[in-house]
Amino acid sequence: MANETYPHQDPAQVSEVISSLKRFTSGGRGPWHAVSDSDWKDWRWQLKNRINNLDQLESVVPDLSDEEIQGAELANTKLSLGITPYFSNLIHREDPICPIRRQVVPRVEETISSTWDMSDPCGEDEHSPVPGLVHRYPDRVLFLVTDRCAAYCRYCTRSRLVSNASGYGFQPDYQEQLDYIRKHPEVRDVLFSGGDPLLLSDSKLEGLLKALRDIPHVEFIRIGSRIPIFLPQRITSDLCEMLKQFHPLFMSVHANHPRELTTEVKEALGRLADAGIPLGNQSVLLRGVNDSVPVMKALIHKLLMCRVRPYYLYQCDLISGSAHLRTSVRKGLEIMRGLRGHTTGYAVPQYVIDAPGGGGKVPINPEYILSHNNERVVIRNFEGRVFEYPEVADEPEDASSMKVCSSVHGEA
Ligand SMILES: *Cc1c(COP(=O)(O)O)cnc(C)c1O
Fold it and tell me: pTM (2 decimals)?
């Protein structure tokens, strides 16, 4: 089993592991075999029956380690423990380093704060003009609609407020957030996040989307959600029918490991895609989960098969208690080198570091430009071969801006 996380060097074995990771299989019923089909497929049943304490965790994942037992005892003081029954069945119970398990089962290491760790690594609170709204970039805002999720990622960058385990007391006043957007015509792009926006009822979500669409300068709306992965049952045809009234509406989902893409998830993503919602994926680079080229390749190829375009690969934020899940940036660059050119650009996400302290997302790329001067640019391709491209002088600045003006007036 450990081979799934760290595939063996033997190429034949690697390719066998990869093809098994790429297969779409159902999460199955696990210990819930006696539950009726209609309950199992009901997202509210899944939420009601989440695993959220040590006893429940032990009954579903036997042989917890001491680190996990202590972690589960301490969970609910910093970030709640919550796992949907559906998602818990993806844990390979006999594998202590299962990549699914590492993402949702708490460990005592979460209580360790290392030197660089922060409670708000992206500096969101400093860029929050009204509660629940983050305005960090010129033309777009993050609109936090709830502090709850279907399940809790142990490396959550927003754990200071998500799940309210540490008493942040997040109580968004949607009117205040909407008023801010109304008064700021530069906001042409709104991203719903949280917590997970798809935990809201269809009618509540519809009300928010309507209010946003009534603001003429809001051109583009996105929903950031891990619910298609944690709780695919939530993606009902009613939800999709409702969402498709608000186009252009995009959705960013969050899958980190190819085994998260089950037949249930593929069908849920298919329903969203059929409703005309362009889908992107945001992964977090996590130690022991997806920190190898073959696993990452299996993930991005499987995403394309689910009609999802890999969007960002995040270096793990310096959130307190996540050091055991973080990798080096060197590892991230190595993975990017293993993807670019070796597979279609549609499958390759942009690797980014969200600059600690509120700097925003910064793209991190392997060196493809070796040198650049007024005569030439020297470039390296994906195979490591070096090429030259001649450089020319640009037109004077006023001449090129004139061209923009004349084309605006229809003369170009
Ligand atoms: C990531 C993020 C966005 C969206 O950025 P895109 O590059 O448009 O996906 C907006 N606001 C904040 C605060 C963010 O962290």
Answer: 0.94
CA 136–ligand 1 middle distance (angstroms) = 8
Decide if pLDDT at 324 tops 90. Answer: yes
Q: Residues with beta carbon inside 6 Å of ligand 1?
A: 122, 134, 136-137, 140, 142, 191, 361
What are the helix (H) ranges across 246-396?
Answer: 263-274, 293-305, 329-339
Q: Cβ neighbours of residue 299 under 8 Å, at least 6 residues apart?
A: 255, 256, 257, 258, 261, 283, 290, 310
Has 140 been annotated as catalytic?
Answer: yes
Measured in angstroms, how far is the CA atom of residue 135 from the centroid of ligand 1?
9
Helices (H), 65-220: 66-74, 85-88, 99-104, 174-183, 202-213
- How are beta strands 360-363 and 386-390 bridged, if at all? unpaired
Known catalytic residue: 156? yes
When mean pLDDT is compared over 92-96, 184-188, 399-403, the highest value belongs to 184-188
Residues 197-236 as b or e (16 or more Cβ within 10 Å = b): bbbbeeeebbebbebbeebeebeebbbbbbbbbbbbbbbe
Give me the phi and psi of 161, to 5 degrees please.
-120, -30
Q: What is the CA radius of gyration of the chain?
A: 23
Tokens of 149: 């999720």
Q: Phi and psi for 57 in degrees, rounded to 5?
A: -65, -45
Prior bond to 248 cis, omega within 30? yes
**Å from CA of 80 to ligand 1 middle:** 25
